Amino acid sequence: MPGPTPHRTPLRRVSQGSLFALSRSGTHPDAPHGLGFLEPAMAELADEADALLSNVEGLRALGDSLQTFNESFASWLYVMNMNALTVDWPQAPTDASFILARRRAEEDARAALAAMQSHTNPEPSTLEKTTDNATDDTTYADNTVADASVKTTATKIVKKKGKPKMTVKEKKERSAAIDKTVSCLPLEFRGNDPGLRRNIEMVVEGLMDSGGRGIKLVELIKPPDLNQARVNKCLIALVNRKIVTKDNSSGVVLYYWQGVPN
After folding, report:
1. Are the beta carbons of 134 and 149 closer than 8 angstroms?
2. Do 192 and 127 share a domain, yes or no?
């Protein structure tokens, strides 16, 4: 007995737009026979593929150009940023600043030189007054005696009195007072820089020797070790700790010794 007929999928109808229908359709009697109908379609496909390839190559060239531009532009921006950070300083000193600084240094040097000369040479008014007094006193004396007395008086005036010598006890007290004063100052004055420690001791000693009178900054300068910059730095530290007071009410800056506050 024959078995059952196997199930078969019915054949689908060929779509009307297919190449097979185009080649076999009776409505197109001039259609190419066999595979000849593929030639024009493949030629058109080849043309479109060439156009697509040329467009892809153009996009690739455009991408390369954009990448090159981006790298160059980023490098330029980086260089401009570094230039702004290293060269463009709005508060940098100009040529006028250096000229002004040089002029101030010359004025300070002249002032220091004048102060040193005023300490070593007597004032003309004092010499004239002494000379006049000596002349009046020797009116009836010989000219040689008068000249000798004037010379002797002038020599005494020109000669500067030295600082009185201190005893051992006074030296110890002075050293203890200086150490106490330096201990109140910032760390840089207390031993980090031996030269600065020596400078602050010289400034403190000069202020102590002033005897309570106001003393100018130039009077504390003792070149070459103790220059104006070091003296100014030491005075600023002493004024901040209220060990020294600063007064400029008379038009001249004077510093008064007060001592370490309790």
Report:
1. yes
2. no
Q: Quick one: which H or E segment has residue 256?
A: strand 254-257
Let me know whether 202 and 250 are in one domain: yes
Whether residue 173 sits in one domain with residue 251: yes
Strands (E), 45-154: none
Token output for 137:
């006193």
Domain match, 178 and 153 both: no
The answer to the question of residue 61 being in a domain is: yes
* pTM, two decimal places: 0.38
Q: Which residues contact 132 (CB under 8 A, 6 or more apart)?
A: none
Asked if residue 111 is part of any domain, the answer here is no
Q: Are residues 179 and 243 in the same domain?
A: yes
User: Which of the 8 DSSP states describes residue 190?
Assistant: T
In a domain? residue 101: no
122: containing domain = 118-158
Number of domains in the chain: 3
**119 CB-near residues (< 8 Å, 6+ apart):** 160, 219
Task: For residue 243, count other CB atoms closer than 10 A to its CB.
Answer: 20
Indicate whether 246 belongs to any domain.
yes
pLDDT tens digits in sequence order for the chain, 262 residues long = 556 666 565 555 544 455 555 555 555 566 556 667 788 888 999 999 999 999 999 999 999 999 999 999 999 999 988 887 777 666 777 888 889 999 999 999 999 988 888 777 655 555 455 545 544 444 444 444 444 444 444 444 444 455 667 788 888 888 888 888 888 888 878 776 778 888 888 888 888 888 778 888 888 888 877 888 888 888 888 888 888 888 888 888 889 888 887 6
